[in-house]
Amino acid sequence: MTPADDSTDEDRHWSLESLNKAYQQGYMAGLTGQPQHQQPYPAEVQAAAWEAGWDDGNEQFKQHQRRSA
Length: 69
Description:
Blueprint: H1 3-6, H2 9-12, H3 16-31, H4 44-68
Helix pairs in contact: 3-4
C-alpha cells in the first residue's frame, strides 16, 4: 500500500479553486484574530491551505496590533 492509498476521498478530490478558498478563509480567520484550532477542513490538503492562509493573516494581525500599540 502506498501513502496515496491511505488518503481519504476528500484528500483526493480537491481543486485549485477549493485550495484558494481554504487559503482565503484561513487568511481572514488569522487577520481577524481567530484561533488556529478553529480550522474547519477534515481533508489534509485543504487543512494545510487553510493553515497557510491563517499564518499569513495572523502575521498581518500581529503587525497591525504592534503598530496600534
